[in-house]
Predict the structure.
Amino acid sequence: MSKIVEQNTPATPKGKKPAGIRDVPLPKITKGAGMPELVRGMKDVLPNESSWWETLQENAADIARGYGFGWIETPIVEHTSLFVRAVGKQTDIVEKELYRFVDQGGDDLVLRPEATASIVRAYSEHGMWNQPQPIKVWYWGQMFRHDRPQAGRYRQFHQCGFETLGDDKPVVDAEIIIMSWNYLNDLGLKVNVQINSLGTTASREVYREKLVAYYRGHRQELCEVCKARLTKNPLRLLDCKEESCLAIRGEAPQIVDSLDDDSRNHFMRVLEYLDELEIPYVLNPHLVRGLDYYNRTVFEFVLDNADEASQNSLGGGGRYDGLSELLGGRPTPGCGVALGIERIILALKSADIRPKPRKKPQVFLAQLGEQAKRTALKLFEVCRKEGLQVSQAFAKDSLKAQLEIANKLGVPVTVIIGQKEVLDGTAVVRDMESGVQEIVDKNKLVSEVCKKLQTVADRRDEKLERLVESSPTDPTNVRSAKDSDIMLDGLEQEDGLHNDLLADIDKDLPGIDEEPKISLDEE
Ligand SMILES: [Zn+2]
């Protein structure tokens, strides 16, 4: 296998287009060699993780809509030059981590390592400066870096990001930070914002010189990586986690002392807006971010109780006013954030937070006999089109097996169709909690099911009211099944306060708080 990887970067004779991937021989197929495995550093996301993925994506879309950000999707494949220019030659991302290849046409391409450069490219390519400014977009997608795989870090990973282009006001930076913080906070994660200002390219240059002068004096004490950074990428000296380097960093000049007046004012305004909304932030003079294109505000989101060594940020971003010009476009200020989805899920898992699926099945459709199966198939479509959340196990023939699944899913209502019902044009509607069954006209099934759902919801509300009489919180306006679900969700988030209450509800209403487990392993 490794031989093929090496051949992926063919030698390019001067003046000639590089050889394409088709010049690399295809791997030989050996009989009985077994199924090829998952590529190292990659990850399959399986259905048992879907509640996290769906919630994260849906919440991101909600937040984006709420703040007026439109969806954008740029291709995964871009020209290598885009990232060499944008991210910078001297960064790890470009030097070591690019998934780079020459395609059949001989083009030098990469799988994108991040999305901001692509979005700035798209802004320019589609003349978005002609539209009212700023342009606010959000994205969700795979990024690729050939990094060392570790917990929560993969070579193909997902980022969700919000970007505002065409406006250089501090309130733009604040909005990006506020919406990202809200996104993480709504998920139940306690995070703070680490924030710094890098100033303008000019003031950053002044600082860079001061920094190099300072670190030169300590060259002997630096780790090997930092010795190289001294000439290649001095700002990254502040990122080093080696103990010897951390000790030197303590006395290093701070970038805020080199800020020009405009950048200082810009930074103060951003902080004032965050204060106004009580967003918790920490001034971190050592925060420089990994990419070359940032200026002025840079920030990261860090878990509240994370210690310095394992301080994994869940995401971050900053202002990139010079990026468009760097790429050869017209001057376009911008500010954005990228949040690491796998890292957020890891944080949720360690904090034992399991997001609730938004749509729980309301009805289970059970059938007995071949004729009934056909009718059930049709009724399923009717119910689904009417907006009911229907579940079924059409592959099962035994009614007992089907009802067991319905029970596991915790559906309040099951519809049963057997041979007799097919002949009569009826269906049995069963209230799963009380066990009460009714025979209804097949053509009135949807309205009958809705009635039954309402009965179940009313009963749950009564039960809830009785239970909360002794509780300090007085829930009001609980009128439908949907509303009581929302309320239960809300109650659960108030840590500890209603634990006993919820335990009782769980006991009495089986399945209401459980994620439906789609039984992949049935039989
Ligand atoms: Zn170091």
